[in-house]
Write a structure and sequence with these properties.
homotetramer, 256 residues, mainly alpha, 13 helices, 0% strand
Chain lengths: 256, 256, 256, 256
C-alpha cells in the first residue's frame, strides 16, 4: 500500500499478454466468473493470491460450513455497522468525483441504498441477535475496520473517480462472489440468511451494474487499451490494497 | 467572501442581542417566515439586504408578473441543468462530512432526489421548451454558475458539515421562500409551473426538514448559544456569500 | 466548463496528428516558446484563441505601454492578495494529491514560496502604493477572483494530481510568458517592477520546473502517447477552463 | 473511533470543572508539562490512560534503556519513511483548510520541513543503518501505519481545520514529550541520536509553536470557553483516537 515509487509485480507490461488472452478466448467469455465485467477479471489476476485470501478466508468458509462461532459473527456484525457508515461516506465521495450523470447516479443510488435499506436491514438483523441500535452505535471501531474505509476515502481524495471506484469494488464484488459461491458449496444453514442476501438476484444485479460501470468508466477515460498504461498499475494496486484490507477485516472478525 | 481576517459587520457581538430577542418573543415564533427554523431566521438577519437582493431580484419579480423574456428563461434553464449536476456533487460532499446517521440520510436523500427526480423533471421541462438533453449537455457553464457551486464545494473541503450546509441552504430555502411568495403575489400564469414546483407542499417539506436539520446540527456541535460564538461569524459569512452568489446567478439569467 | 458529456473541439482524435508533428520537428524543439515543455505547448494549441485572450489581454498590453490606470492596477493588487491565499490553498491540495516524493516536494515548495515570499512581496508592493496589510485583508473577494481558485480546488477534489496541476498551470506559466513577452515589447517603465518579477530568472526557473514536472507527471501515469487518450481531452479542458477564468480576472482588473 | 452517536466518557460536562481548575492553579502553570499550551493539557486529560499507553509504550522504554532490538528499530524506520510521506500529505490538507495567513504558514512550514529536511534526515539515518533509499521506497506499508495517516486525512476531509490539527497533534507533541522525557531518564546511549532529535531545541520549538497555534485556533473559532461546548467532545475524541493509533504504531514496531 501507499505511495508507489517502484512498479509492483503485476506491472502494465505483463498485463499486455493476459489482456489479449482474456479478450479473445471464447471460454473466458463464457466463464461464469466474468459476470462482473472485463476490468474486474483483470484486476483479480493482478491481485493474485490476495483475492483468494479474501474471498476464501477462514471466516468465509466457516460461514458456509456453520462452524463460525456466534460470538465471532456478532463481533463482525457490530463492526460492520460502523463500517457501513464510513463505506456510505466513501460512496458519497465517489459521487463528488463522478464526471457523467450516469456515474453520479450509480454512486448516489449506492449511497442511498446503503444508508437507507442496508442500514435498516443491518439494524434489524442485529436486533434479532439481541443487539439494540444504541448498543450498535456504541461500538468501538477497530483498527482493521477503520483502515479500509479511511484508505478508500483517501484514495478518493488523492486520486480520481477511478481510484475510489476500484478501491470500493473489492468489497462490493467480493461479497457478490462470496455469496454466489457459498450458496453453492455451503454445508450448513446456520448462516443462510447472510448467504442469501449476497447470493440473491438483487445484490447480484448491483454487482453486475458496478462491474459494467467500471468497464465503461475506464474506457471513457483511458481508452480500450487501458491495461497497457502505467496508470493501470496504480489502479490495480488500489484494488489489491483494498483486497488485503478486506482480508484483514475477516481476520478481525475471527478475533474474540 | 474569502478568508476572514477581520470580523464582518454581522459579528457575534451584535448577535448576542438579536439572539435573545428572537428566542424569547412569542410574535417571532408565530411569524410565518420562521417556518424553516431558528438558524435560518438569524442567518437572514446577518445577511441583511443581500437576502432581498436575491429573493426579490428582478428575475424573480418578472417570473411573477410574466414579463421575463422567454429567452432569458431558457438561458436560465440551460445553466440550471449544469448547476444541478454540481449542486448534486456538493450535496454528496455534505454526506461525506456528516457525523450522524440522520445527517448522512438527509444529505443522501437530497442528492438522490436532485440527481434522479429533479434532473428528470428538468430535462422534461426543457424538452417541452424545445431543448433536447443533448443540447442541454452541451451548455457552456457560465462564470456566475460555476462560482456558486465551486464556492460551496470548497466550503465543504475547507470547513466542516456546518460550513457546507449553510452554503447550500440559501439556494434550497431561498427557492422555498420565492416559491411561497410568488404563489401569493404573482399577477401572471406565464411561469406558473415553475412557481408551483417550489411553492408546492413537497418542496416546502424539503425546506422544513433542512431548516430543522440546520437547527439540530448547530446545537449538537456548538450548544444552544451558538450565535454568541465567533464560529457563528464565519458560518453566517458562508450564508451571506452564498446568497450574493445566488443573486449573481439571477443576474446572469437576465443576460441575453 | 463543467461536467463533460460531449467531447470538445480539441478532441483526442485530432491531437494525434499534431502530437506526432510537434514531437518530430527540429524547428519546434528550438522554438523559444517550448521552454516550458511539451505538454504546455500541446495544451496551448488545444486552448486556441483563449490563450491569446488571456496572455494578450488589454490589461496586459496596458501594463506594457503604461496606459493602465493606477486605480485599475491597485484594484488588481487588492484582489490578487486574496487570490494568493486561495491559490496557496490550491497548491496545498496538489501536495495532498501527489504520488511521488518529487511531486510532493514541488507542490510543497510552491506553496511555501507563495505563502512566505510572494505574500511578503505582495504586502510590501501594496504598502508602497499606500495600502496597509489591514486594508488588504478587508478586501471583498470579487466573483471572477473567487471563480478561478474555487474551480481549481474543485478540480483537485474531483480529479487527480494531473487535473489540479493542469488547472494551476495557466496562471503560473501564463504569467511567465507574459513577463517574458512584456520585457521585450514594453514601451513604458510605468509597471517595470511587476514585469521584471515575472520576466526574471527566478520566476522563469519556477516555470521551467513546473513544465518539466507536467511532462513527467503525464508520462508517468499515461505513457508517452498520452495525447491520444480520451483522458487528454478532459485534462486539456481543465487547462482551457482555467485560461478563460484567468482572462476574466484581467477583465475584472480593468473595472473601476 | 468513528462516527459519534453517543458522547464519550470525557464529555463536555465533566470538563467544565477540570477546565476551571487547570486555568486557575499557579502550580499547573508552572508545570513543565504545560509547555505546549492549555489545549494540549486538557486533551491529554480527556485521553486518560491512552496517553501513557502511547508515550510510555514498551517501544519507547526500550529506546531509553537500549534493549530495543536493532531489527525492531529498523522495522520502525522503514515504516516511518512511508509514514512521513502520508503525514506530509495530511499537513498539506491542514494548509488547504486554514482560515488565516498564520494558519496557512504554520501548516506550509511544517509540510516543507517534513518533506525537505525530515525526509533527508530520515534517508540519511537509514543509509547509516545500511538501507538504501530504493529499499526504503519498496517498503510495504503496514496496517497500523496506514490507519493513522488515513484517519488523519479523513478527519481533515470530514471536519474542519481544528479536526485535522488535533488529529496531527498527538504525533508531533507526543514525540516532543517522549524526546524530553527520554533525554532525562534514559539509561543507555544506544538510541541517543533519535532521542536528541526530539529532545533538541529545534524540535521542541516546533512543538511550542504548534501548541500555541492550537490554543489560538480553538479560541478564534469557539471562544475562550470552548471546553464547555459539545464540539469539544468530538475534538477531544479525534485527539484520543489518534493517540490510540500512535500506540498501535509502536506496537507494530515491536513486531519482528
Amino acid at each position: 500500500m501507499g505511495i508507489r515509487l517502484v512498479p509492483s509485480a503485476c506491472g502494465y507490461l505483463h498485463l499486455h499478454n493476459s489482456n489479449e488472452r482474456s479478450g479473445n478466448s471464447f471460454g473466458d467469455q463464457m466463464n461464469s466468473t466474468q459476470k462482473y465485467g472485463r476490468a474486474f477479471e483483470a484486476l483479480k489476476k493482478c491481485c493474485g493470491e490476495e483475492w483468494a485470501a479474501f474471498t476464501e478466508h477462514e471466516f468465509v468458509r466457516r460461514l458456509g460450513n456453520g462452524t463460525l462461532p456466534r460470538e465471532a459473527y456478532l463481533h463482525y456484525l457490530r463492526q460492520d455497522y460502523v463500517f457501513l457508515l464510513h463505506f456510505s461516506r466513501a460512496w458519497a465521495l465517489a459521487a463528488v468525483k463522478a464526471e457523467t450523470i450516469d456515474e453520479i447516479q450509480l454512486a448516489a443510488n449506492t449511497l442511498h441504498g446503503l444508508i437507507t435499506f442496508e442500514m435498516s436491514l443491518h439494524v434489524e438483523t442485529c436486533r434479532k441477535e439481541g443487539m439494540s441500535e444504541r448498543e450498535l452505535a456504541e461500538t468501538k471501531e477497530e483498527l482493521e475496520n477503520l483502515a479500509y474505509t479511511r484508505y478508500a476515502i483517501d484514495a478518493g481524495l488523492s486520486g480520481d473517480f477511478l481510484d475510489i471506484l476500484l478501491t470500493l469494488a473489492p468489497c462490493v464484488l467480493g461479497y457478490g462472489e462470496i455469496g454466489s459461491s457459498l450458496s453453492n458449496v455451503r454445508t450448513s444453514d446456520e448462516y443462510l440468511p447472510w448467504i442469501e442476501t449476497y447470493a440473491g438476484e438483487e445484490y447480484q444485479s448491483v454487482c453486475r451494474d458496478l462491474g459494467q460501470m467500471m468497464d465503461g468508466a475506464l474506457e471513457r477515460r483511458l481508452g480500450k487499451q487501458y491495461q497497457s498504461l502505467p496508470r493501470w498499475n496504480s489502479l490495480s494496486s488500489r484494488f489489491t490494497d483494498a483486497t488485503r484490507l478486506e482480508a484483514a477485516f475477516w481476520q478481525m472478525g475471527l478475533r474474540p
